Amino acid sequence: MKQLFTYKHSLQQRFTVTAVMMLVPLVILVVIQYLVFNNTIAHLNNVIEHGSSELTGIKQLQHKMHLAIMAPNDYLIHGKKTERENYAALSSKVSMTINNMIKLMARHQNERDLIIKVDQLWRQIDQKAYKVLASTNPIGDMAIAEEMELLDAVAEQAISVLEQVFKIATLEMAEEVEEAEYLRTIMIALIIGGASITALMILWLNTRLANAIVRPICCLKSAANRVSDGDYNTRLSWQRQDEIGELSQSFDAMTEHLEQTHTKLELLSRHDGLTGILNRREFDRLFPIEFSRAVRYKKNLSLVMIDLDHFKEINDKHGHLTGDSVLQIFAKLVKETIRDIDQFARYGGEEFVLILPEANREGACILAERIRALVEDINFGDTNGEPVHITISAGIANYPEHGTSEKEIIDTADKALYLAKHGGRNRVDCANSII
Fold first, then answer.
1. Are 83 and 155 in contact (CB under 8 A)?
2. pLDDT tens digit string along 386-413?
3. Domain regions of the chain by residue span
4. At what angle do helices 200-209 and 142-198 cross, to 10 degrees?
5. H-type alpha helices, 233-383
6. pTM > 0.90
C-alpha cells in the first residue's frame, strides 16, 4: 500500500489509486444520499397529498353543513315544504362527508376525536332540523323559532370545532415538513462527513447538492409556512424535470386547488346562489361597517328595502323557473342602475335591500323611484306567449334624519316598505314622503 504512494509510480497511477480510494466512500455516500433523498421526496409528496385531502375535506364539510342548515332556516321563513326534501339530501351528504373524514383522520387521533365530536353535534343539528321541518305551520311558531335558535347555536359550535380541526391539520402538515427538514439535515451531515474523507471532491459535491436540493427544500418549507398562514396564492413555478420539479408541481397543484376551494367557499358564504348579489349574512356584516363610517365622518347613509309585489303569483302561475328568472333579471337591472359604492343584497325570498353611502333621503327616493319605473316597464320574459310583468314596493330610511342607530334605520325602512305595500303597492315610501 505504501508503494502506491511513492515516487516510483507515475502521477497517473497515483491519481488513479487515490481516485479509487476516494470513490469508495463517495459511492457509499451517494447510495445513502439517494435512499435518504427518495425517502424525503416520498415523505413530502405524501404530506402534501394527505394534507391537501384533509384541508379540502374540512372546507367542503363546512360548506355542506352551511347549505344543509340553510334549509330549515328557509323553511322557517317561507314555509316551503320542498325544503324538507332539500334538507334530507343535504343531510345525507354531510353525514357521508363526516364518515369519510373520520376514515381520513385515522392516523391523527386528535383530529379524529374532533371530527367525531362534529359528528355528535351534527346528530343534534339533524334532530333539531327535522323537528323544525316537521312543523306544519312554522311561520310565527315561537317554539319552532326557539328550536331554530338552538340549532344555529349547535351549528356555530360545530363550525368552531371544524375550524379547530383545520388549524390542527395545518400545524401537523408544517410539523411533517419539519420532519422532512430533519431528514435533509441528516443528508447534509453525511455530505460533510464524506467531505472529511474525499476533501475537495466532497466539497464540490456538497455545493452542487446545496444548490440542487437544499435550497429548494428551504423554499418549499417557506412556501408551506405561507400556505399554513392562509396565503393560498403561493406558487413555486419551478421549471425542473427532476423529483424536485415533480414535488413543486404537486405543491402548486395543491395550493391552486386550495385557493380555488377557498375562493368558492368565500363566494358562497357572501353571495346569494341564485342572483349572485350579496346575501343576508353579508348585509348583516356590511351595514354596521357603513353605518359606523357614516357616524364617524358625519355623512348621510340611506337604506332602501324593496319587495317584489305579488311574487308568489308569478311562481304559482308561471312556475318557479320563471320566478327564479325574474329574480335574476331584477337583480341584474338594479346592479346596472346603482353606483359602484352602493351595496345590493338579497334580504330574503323576494325582499332586497340597498345600502347607499353618502346618499340623502331625496337622492335615495329618486333612485328607488327610477328602479320602480324600470321594473314596471320591463317584460321579464314570455311564458306560453304571455308576457311576465311585475312591480315593486320600496321603503326608505336615512341616517341621521330617521334615526341614530342601525336598528332605528332598519325598522324605519321596514315600516316604510309596509306602508308602501299597504298603500296600494308599486310605490316608494320615503319615510313620511311618498313619491
1. no
2. 789 999 999 999 999 999 999 999 999 9
3. 11-268, 280-429
4. 160
5. 243-270, 280-297, 311-318, 320-337, 361-377
6. no
- In angstroms, the Cα distances linking 383 to 51, 314, 317 are 51, 11, 10
Q: Are strands 392-399 and 428-429 parallel, antiparallel or unpaired?
A: parallel
pLDDT, one tens digit per residue, over 274-314 is 999 999 999 999 999 999 999 999 999 999 999 999 999 99
CATH of 280-429, one of 3.40.50.300, 3.30.70.270, 3.40.50.1000, 3.40.50.720: 3.30.70.270
Integer Cα distance of 347 and 121 in angstroms: 29
Q: What are the b/e assignments for 43-66, b being 16+ CB within 10 Å?
A: ebeebbebbbebbbbbbbbbbbbb
**Longest CA pairwise span in the chain (Å):** 119
CA–CA dist 202, 368 (Å, integer): 79
Contact 52, 254 (CB under 8 A): yes
| Cβ atoms < 10 Å from Cβ of 379 | 10
Give exposure, 294-322, as e/b (b: 16+ Cβ within 10 Å): beeeeebbbbbbbbbbebeebbeebeeeb
Rounded distance between C-alpha atoms, residue 379 and residue 395, angstroms:
23
In this prediction, residue 317 carries a pLDDT of 87
